């Protein structure tokens, strides 16, 4: 089975966070563009000598934060027992303050903790059936009668993995509340939301942290896989009462299709738009982002970070600098996201799709 969705549009507006509109900065006629770049020298994952094979961020001291001495000015402002995280946070704040005094065209700095969801039922399905049978047949079904992977939820192992992440976070950062997220963003797919909830104990923390926000462009690459289709706004609101929604979040899934896969360049395009909106609309500097493998890869590419493999249920921290640069020609329009699709998968007798327009009518709410 696949899902029935309203008619798809080839082009949709960029995501919208509450706050000042980006058109104030990226409007037609302006000669400025926004450059987003990785700031090296803070985490081991930046270094070419750090091997990604068998790198476990949760078993690495301070998530890979490089042990180093910071400026005398920072050291003198902190107590003698200050941790590396105290120094790191103070350095990021110093860099951000500098933009006001040196007029370097710097918009600001942000630290993103990019989380990949824990094990979900579609991982089990692919392991059970094998890659070819999974990619060409079973990934297009809502389940197999025993397990269900439409908008795949976490397995019991995945839930325990996310809870372990919470313990690891507490172990590394303690109770200082320094460098902890000020903003929580999530893909609207269940496995991402549940990973975020368990990882930060959002349901039971006291005081209650800021409400996490669902962001459409943080979803896994769109395609024929039912585990990458999302539930309706109404269902998500009922299922995740802690969460808020970005503005213009549609009732039904406007992006998923049962017969085409999104291209890597399309994922990169929306990752860039997400980052631009994040810098232009939000003032928070330390941000937890629950997203997916393809989006994490795209974000790393967009900021010039080396590609670094992120296993299921793991995280990578990045420091991003946003700055303005002048272009030769004035902008003619505000950039909009346009979806690009790959050709059909190389499937033969296993491929159940014969008519791209034939989509069985199944309502997502039926599975709640």
Automatic annotation (TrEMBL):
Recorded GO CC terms: cytoplasm
Origin superkingdom: Eukaryota
InterPro entries: His_Pase_superF_clade-1, His_PPase_superfam, PGM_Phosphatase
One Gene Ontology MF term: phosphatase activity
Pfam families, per database record: His_Phos_1 (PF00300)
UniProt-listed PANTHER family: BROAD-SPECIFICITY PHOSPHATASE YOR283W-RELATED, HISTIDINE PHOSPHATASE FAMILY PROTEIN-RELATED
Protein name: Histidine phosphatase superfamily
């Amino acid at each position: 089975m696949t899902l029935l969705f309203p008619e798809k549009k080839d082009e949709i507006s960029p995501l919208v966070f509450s706050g000042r509109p980006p058109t104030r900065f990226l409007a037609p006629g302006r000669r400025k563009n926004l450059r987003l770049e990785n700031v090296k020298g803070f985490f081991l994952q930046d270094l070419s000598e750090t091997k990604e094979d068998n790198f476990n961020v949760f078993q690495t001291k301070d998530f890979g934060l490089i042990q180093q001495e910071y400026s005398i000015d920072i050291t003198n402002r902190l107590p003698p027992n200050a941790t590396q995280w105290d120094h790191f946070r103070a350095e990021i704040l110093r860099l951000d303050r500098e933009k006001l005094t040196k007029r370097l065209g710097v918009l600001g700095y942000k630290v993103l903790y990019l989380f990949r969801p824990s094990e979900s039922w579609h991982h089990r399905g692919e392991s059970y059936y094998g890659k070819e049978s999974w990619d060409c047949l079973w990934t297009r079904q809502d389940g197999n009668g025993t397990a269900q992977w439409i908008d795949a939820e976490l397995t019991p192992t995945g839930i325990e993995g996310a809870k372990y992440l919470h313990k690891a976070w507490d172990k590394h950062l303690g109770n200082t509340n320094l460098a902890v997220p000020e903003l929580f963003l999530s893909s609207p797919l269940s496995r991402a939301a549940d990973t975020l909830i368990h990882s930060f104990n959002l349901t039971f923390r006291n005081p209650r942290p800021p409400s996490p926000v669902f962001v459409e462009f943080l979803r896994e690459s769109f395609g024929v896989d039912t585990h990458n289709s999302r539930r309706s706004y109404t269902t998500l609101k009922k299922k995740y009462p802690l969460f808020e929604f970005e503005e213009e979040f549609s009732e039904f899934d406007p992006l998923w299709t049962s017969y085409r896969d999104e291209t890597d360049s399309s994922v990169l395009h929306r990752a860039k738009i997400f980052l631009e909106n994040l810098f232009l609309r939000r003032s928070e500097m330390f941000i937890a982002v629950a997203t997916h493998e393809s989006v994490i890869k795209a974000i790393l590419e967009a900021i010039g970070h080396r590609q670094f493999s992120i296993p299921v249920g793991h995280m990578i921290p990045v420091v991003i600098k946003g700055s303005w640069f002048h272009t030769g020609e004035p902008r003619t329009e505000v950039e909009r996201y346009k979806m690009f699709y790959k050709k059909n998968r190389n499937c033969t007798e296993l491929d159940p799709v014969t008519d791209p327009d034939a989509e069985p009518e199944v309502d997502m709410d039926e599975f709640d």
